[in-house]
């Protein structure tokens, strides 16, 4: 989750409420008070927006479904907001008779509450108190923390039951020092989950060392050896341990220190030797493919669209209804990464209007066909490789070492491929 707030900008307050009239009146109030307003009409939209830009204070309405007054959805959102950012400063909005609910929300980690209908001066007072609290916390954290904090880990988005289970497991294992094996298809978010586990761990104030397992096991790779040594008494992310044969896996085990926390990624635990499974596979976190995540593909597509539009300074209208329908049923080669790249391509190459199926390489649904309704047009190997390299370079701010590490290549191999593709 992105928690870095530039110090000089006006404090940002996010409202999560399904009522557009409430948005309008609070937006006016906050802007007059010199604050920056951001609005989300659902918790899912809020997680995505907060990932792109953090807020000093979050105003959270507790009831989203008409007729509900017990605040279950609001409490679930409160838990998730604090889970994504334990320093989140949340002020809950409750109905006028909701004292019991307000108390429960504060016990659950809310900073404060306001009751409907509120007086504007009282609401502003609460917001300013929350902003001051958040800033004090940040100052104290800076004083206490002598080491630079771990870089922000992007939030793990998705609201399907399958991802909720993953999130629960991550929450449980993160604060321990257990070794973890993260399994799932390539591009499904295994590394992101590894980073999330690390950032929730007692060792989070030390950087996690990320190494391709093939390099870590290579006796001639002195750089990888030195990197691995840095992870002593810390945490190492060993990517793609299943790319090693049994001998390689044995060499790898020999290099792992007893007090290193190992988080490894693989397609499945099957390819691991019993010895490596014993060392690195104490707990398995299985990442489901997008196809098993209900409507998460759509939620992620909207998020990637917002992010790409912001990153590349492109206006965006959104996804066309046809695209949205197809996104729910389309299998993506390379999973979340494939979807992320397709959206970024569409934003960069598009004209800023609605994104149609063709912009994502999707074939419109044809009712007369027996074959699955939509298949992304597979790019040829050359294009895919170029796309992967370009995206890795961008993601890593054109840092060759980091991009090479992410791609599982040596720096030299990455340079060769960049030259081949004219990058
Ligand atoms: N649930 C998610 N929410 C937001 N972003 C996600 C999610 N899952 C994956 N991503 C993004 O998708 C991209 C691919 O994820 P990641 O690199 O973690 O996959 P991976 O399984 O480790 O892939 P590989 O091992 O093949 O490189 C990353 O940019 C990551 O931030």
UniProtKB/TrEMBL annotation:
<dbReference type="InterPro" id="IPR027417">
    <property type="entry name" value="P-loop_NTPase"/>
</dbReference>
<dbReference type="GO" id="GO:0006355">
    <property type="term" value="P:regulation of DNA-templated transcription"/>
</dbReference>
<feature type="modified residue" description="4-aspartylphosphate">
    <location>
        <position position="61"/>
    </location>
</feature>
<dbReference type="GO" id="GO:0000160">
    <property type="term" value="P:phosphorelay signal transduction system"/>
</dbReference>
<dbReference type="InterPro" id="IPR058031">
    <property type="entry name" value="AAA_lid_NorR"/>
</dbReference>
<keyword id="KW-0805">Transcription regulation</keyword>
<feature type="domain" description="Sigma-54 factor interaction">
    <location>
        <begin position="156"/>
        <end position="348"/>
    </location>
</feature>
<dbReference type="GO" id="GO:0005524">
    <property type="term" value="F:ATP binding"/>
</dbReference>
<dbReference type="Pfam" id="PF00072">
    <property type="entry name" value="Response_reg"/>
</dbReference>
<dbReference type="InterPro" id="IPR002078">
    <property type="entry name" value="Sigma_54_int"/>
</dbReference>
<dbReference type="InterPro" id="IPR002197">
    <property type="entry name" value="HTH_Fis"/>
</dbReference>
<dbReference type="Pfam" id="PF25601">
    <property type="entry name" value="AAA_lid_14"/>
</dbReference>
<keyword id="KW-0804">Transcription</keyword>
<dbReference type="InterPro" id="IPR011006">
    <property type="entry name" value="CheY-like_superfamily"/>
</dbReference>
<dbReference type="InterPro" id="IPR009057">
    <property type="entry name" value="Homeodomain-like_sf"/>
</dbReference>
<keyword id="KW-0902">Two-component regulatory system</keyword>
<dbReference type="InterPro" id="IPR003593">
    <property type="entry name" value="AAA+_ATPase"/>
</dbReference>
<dbReference type="Pfam" id="PF00158">
    <property type="entry name" value="Sigma54_activat"/>
</dbReference>
<keyword id="KW-0067">ATP-binding</keyword>
<dbReference type="InterPro" id="IPR001789">
    <property type="entry name" value="Sig_transdc_resp-reg_receiver"/>
</dbReference>
<feature type="domain" description="Response regulatory">
    <location>
        <begin position="12"/>
        <end position="131"/>
    </location>
</feature>
<dbReference type="GO" id="GO:0043565">
    <property type="term" value="F:sequence-specific DNA binding"/>
</dbReference>
<keyword id="KW-0597">Phosphoprotein</keyword>
<dbReference type="Pfam" id="PF02954">
    <property type="entry name" value="HTH_8"/>
</dbReference>
<keyword id="KW-0547">Nucleotide-binding</keyword>
<protein>
    <submittedName>
        <fullName>Sigma-54-dependent Fis family transcriptional regulator</fullName>
    </submittedName>
</protein>
């Amino acid at each position: 989750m992105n928690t870095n707030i530039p110090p000089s900008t006006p404090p940002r307050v996010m409202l999560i409420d399904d009522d557009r009239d409430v948005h309008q009146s609070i937006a006016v109030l906050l802007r007059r008070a010199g604050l920056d307003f951001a609005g989300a009409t659902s918790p899912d939209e809020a997680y995505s927006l907060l990932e792109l830009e953090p807020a000093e204070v979050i105003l959270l309405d507790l009831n989203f479904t008409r007729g509900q007054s017990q605040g279950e959805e609001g409490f679930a959102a409160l838990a998730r907001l604090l889970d994504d950012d334990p320093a989140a400063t949340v002020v809950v909005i409750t109905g006028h008779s909701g004292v019991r609910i307000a108390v429960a929300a504060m016990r659950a980690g809310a900073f404060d509450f306001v009751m409907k209908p509120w007086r504007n001066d009282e609401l502003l007072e609460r917001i300013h108190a929350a902003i001051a609290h958040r800033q004090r916390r940040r100052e104290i954290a800076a004083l206490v923390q002598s080491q630079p904090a771990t870089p922000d880990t992007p939030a793990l988005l998705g609201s399907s039951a399958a991802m909720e289970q993953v999130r629960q497991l991550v929450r449980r294992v993160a604060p321990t020092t257990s070794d973890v094996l993260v399994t799932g298809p390539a591009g499904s978010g295994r590394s992101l989950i590894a980073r999330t586990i690390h950032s929730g761990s007692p060792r989070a104030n030390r950087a996690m060392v990320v190494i391709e397992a093939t390099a870590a096991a290579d006796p001639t790779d002195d750089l990888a050896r030195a990197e691995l040594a840095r992870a002593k008494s810390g945490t190492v992310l060993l990517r793609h341990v299943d790319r090693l044969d049994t001998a390689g896996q044995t060499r790898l085990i020999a290099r792992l220190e007893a007090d290193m926390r190992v988080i490894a990624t693989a397609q499945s635990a099957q390819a691991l030797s019993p010895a490596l499974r014993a060392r690195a596979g104490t707990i398995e976190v299985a990442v489901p493919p997008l196809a098993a995540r209900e409507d998460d593909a759509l939620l992620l597509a909207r998020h990637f669209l917002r992010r790409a539009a912001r990153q590349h300074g492109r206006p965006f209208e959104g996804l066309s209804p046809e695209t949205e329908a197809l996104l729910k049923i389309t299998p993506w080669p390379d999973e979340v990464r494939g979807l992320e790249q397709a959206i970024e391509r569409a934003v960069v190459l598009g004209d800023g209007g609605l994104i149609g199926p063709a912009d994502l390489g999707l074939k419109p649904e044809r009712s007369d066909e027996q074959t699955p309704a939509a298949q992304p047009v597979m790019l040829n190997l050359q294009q895919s490789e170029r796309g992967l390299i370009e995206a890795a370079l961008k993601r890593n701010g054109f840092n060759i070492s980091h991009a090479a590490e992410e791609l599982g290549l040596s720096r030299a191999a990455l340079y060769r491929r960049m030259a081949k593709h004219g990058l």
